[in-house]
Specification:
Length: about 350
Amino acid sequence: MIRTLGIETSCDESAVAVVDGDGRVEVSLLSSQIAAHAPYGGVVPELASREHLKALPYLVDQALEAACGPVEMVAVTAGPGLIGALLVGVRFAAAFAWGRNLPLVAVDHLEGHLVSSLLSPDGGAARAEPDRVLALVASGGHSSWYLMDHGCRVRLGRTRDDAAGESFDKVAQVLGLGYPGGPAIDALARHGDSSKVPLPRPRLKDAPFDFSFSGLKSAAVRWIREQGLVDAGAGDGEPTAPVCDLAASFEAAVVEQLLSPLPELAATYRPHLVTASGGVAANSLLRRALSEWGDEHSVETLLPACSLTTDNAVMIAHAGQIAHRGGRSDDPRRLDARAREAWQPPGMRRETSGAGV
Ligand code: KG4
Ligand code: ZN
């Protein structure tokens, strides 16, 4: 594998990284757009594209200066995500690679999250992917279980409505905790009692590997309104016990939903490794629950360092390296971006996850 420049612009963070040939992180830079979108109460796609345009040249210059040697390849997120935001990263990466005659690899954002758990949490070389990995990706836009096996990715289960991160963000918004809501709920939950607020955990009879968050989210929002706790978490004051109890109860229910398919998935696929990635994999209860499950069932579990759970360019660079080692290279003059998820059941091979699909 070769030293790789990774570029990620699928949503509201411009990320650039340089990863060496063994998957060690040499530089990882992030420019968050949270402040730019805050006045609008959500991500404004047009604004996101403009912010990426402003940030990328500076981030790339900085990354090249801090890298331990010249980059030999470029990997860029080509989808899924906001199309305008993706196009900024894709065209930047294509021009960069073409101008320097470097190989270019288009990476699926979800593939990036999937391989992020193989990156070393302490700066060492990345781990090779074993066969039969069950992998949860839980973020602001996606919540699915995948089977990773011999380079093949199959989506086995998914949320039928909201993503887990999206539901954390919504409940946090109603409590006045700001965006992103996951970390704030996680922090409050540590001071709360998860048995205090009864919340539903709906199961889908016809689809044991799927789950749902919208009923759970609506019940939590209803409870907050009934208790007169709208915006109760805003400001600098100490959060009250009911706010902390709601946070703990909601977090416990989301984690239970995410892990609910695991026993049957494990019995069916007999994994060598179980991983979780994506922003929600930073959640302290999810991390604890997954590793306890692994200990109880003698199955190895692996989680990325918290800094690599949310969107970053290290995972994109490493996913590009793996794809390039498998023979992938994309034409910079033809590289396109796509907004939608490429992997649908019964699953597609890695080769289909690149540009223009
Ligand atoms: O992977 P990511 O950075 O972006 C997407 O690809 O969507 O995930 C962001 C999501 C947000 O919804 C955020 O609230 C959630 O991850 N998140 C968390 C935690 N940290 C971030 N959710 C629960 N607990 C956390 N500690
Ligand atoms: Zn993501």
